[in-house]
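Person: Please work through this fold.
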Amino acid sequence: MEEPEYAPELDPEHEQAAGWRGFSTLGLFLEEDGWYPQRVDDRPAYRMHYQGANVDIRCLAQIKLEQEQLLIYAYAPMKVPEDKRQLVAEYLTRANYGLHIGNFELDFNDGEVRFKSSLDFEDETLTFIWIRNTIYPSVHLMNRYFPGLMMVMYGEKTPAEAITVIEQ
């Protein structure tokens, strides 16, 4: 990804220059690491996919410009039915306990499940290593815990039983 000859947002004097530099670095990393990112039109973000052993994961990598933060979201490919959301919430809470990087989230309004990891790079230069260490936990943990999510959603296991199976 080539930088334009002059982009005000990359000018060191621009209010959000560090955030835009981070976004440029994020794009370069995603390209070089083989993610095939698609730019999101209305914000500094990219969409991409990750094929895990257990699930095909939709991802979003976003830079919060003013805050100089990197956010990575790994989305489950389906929505949780309304009548299963309490059980799934328990499962995700059990999964979150003890995680060192990131957390699972459930939107009770629509049933969306995602894993989020983030990094604050304020007053620092965002690097490929930091991006890698933020993005891969999201997809790996979604991939790891997805079978348990399915066990709970389809009534095969209780949340506690599903966690025991996944974390063995």
Summary: Residues 1-8 have pLDDT under 50 and may be disordered. The radius of gyration is 18 Å. The CA atoms of residues 100 and 137 lie 10 Å apart. Residues 8-167 form a domain with the Yope Regulator; Chain: A, fold (CATH 3.30.1460.70).
